[in-house]
Write a sequence for this structure.
């Protein structure tokens, strides 16, 4: 017949228009359905179709209403760390006699380091000129800009090193005084069995380790401070954050080590609460920068660090502290 061809399937024949679409030709065939893609129709066996076997794909999971995101959770942990330092200041009212003892070593170390900072400030112009002889031949404006940047970086790194050194040396010199403070806080909190002794030589080792890490942070702050335009801000922020982490780690070490925790276990526990650690450490460091603030803050920081250690232990699972 004109305009028709015979389609044989399963022993039968039926006339099919030659110009019929694949959909019309396949519509009469058993076990075949048409899958449409991009405007075309292609016959597809029914038993090979994922849609027929598994149904439609499930919708992606949505976060629960009101659940905090990672940023909000991090900021909440940061604020919690700041609040722990504030609670440490509260021990000036609860235990004034014990806290006052902690001011003596802090005052001695602060006087020595402050003298060093004053000397650095006096000789800083000469130091910047000595380390930038290449700028002598530059135009006056650019030579001044580069030397201000170098001087800012040097003094900022000195502040980082002073904050670290103050913490390390004060804890070393005032170990008996600060031990009374954090043990008094533990007694107020209750429920702690403190059998492990921190020891003088362990304090010496931690002091040297902390100063060494402080030097590394100070050098990093200097290098970042040399970046044009944004270097000063970038170096300051990086120095404050890294120094805050080191201070929080060192101050909380006494309460955690007294429970027999090793250094790797202690560090792993603290990494699980980075926001809280940074909030406590950054707030402590900023208080150190206030005139005479370091002397008053150091006993409060020891008390607050004990609260910090107890808070992360309360939130930890048994597998975390094994």
């Amino acid at each position: 017949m004109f305009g028709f061809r015979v389609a044989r399937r399963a022993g039968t024949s039926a006339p099919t228009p030659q110009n019929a679409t694949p959909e019309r030709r396949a519509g009469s065939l058993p076990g075949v359905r048409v899958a449409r893609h991009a405007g075309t129709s292609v016959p597809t066996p029914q038993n090979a179709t994922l849609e027929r076997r598994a149904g439609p794909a499930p919708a992606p999971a949505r976060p629960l209403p009101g659940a905090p995101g990672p940023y909000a959770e991090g900021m909440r942990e940061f604020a919690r760390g700041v609040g722990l330092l504030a609670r440490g200041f509260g021990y000036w009212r609860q235990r004034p006699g014990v806290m006052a003892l902690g001011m003596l070593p802090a005052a001695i170390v602060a006087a020595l380091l402050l003298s060093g900072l004053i000397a650095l400030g006096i000789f800083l112009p000469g130091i910047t000129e000595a380390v930038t002889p290449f700028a002598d031949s530059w135009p006056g404006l650019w030579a001044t800009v580069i030397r201000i940047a170098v001087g800012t970086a040097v003094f900022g790194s000195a502040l980082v090193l002073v904050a670290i050194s103050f913490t390390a040396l004060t804890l070393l010199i005032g170990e008996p005084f600060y031990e009374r403070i954090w043990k008094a806080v533990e007694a107020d909190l209750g429920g702690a069995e403190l059998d492990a002794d921190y020891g003088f030589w362990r304090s010496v080792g931690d002091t040297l380790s902390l100063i060494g890490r402080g030097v590394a942070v100070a050098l990093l702050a200097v290098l970042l401070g040399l970046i044009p335009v944004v270097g000063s801000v970038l170096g300051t922020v990086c120095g404050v954050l890294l120094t805050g982490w080191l201070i929080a780690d060192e101050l909380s070490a006494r309460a955690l080590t007294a429970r027999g925790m090793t250094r790797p276990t202690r560090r792993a526990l603290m990494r699980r609460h980075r926001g809280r650690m940074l909030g406590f450490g950054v707030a402590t460091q900023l208080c150190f920068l206030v005139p005479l603030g370091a002397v008053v803050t150091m006993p409060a920081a020891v008390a607050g660090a004990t609260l910090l250690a107890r808070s992360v232990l309360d939130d930890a699972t048994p597998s975390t502290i094994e």
Notes: The chain has one domain: 71-313.
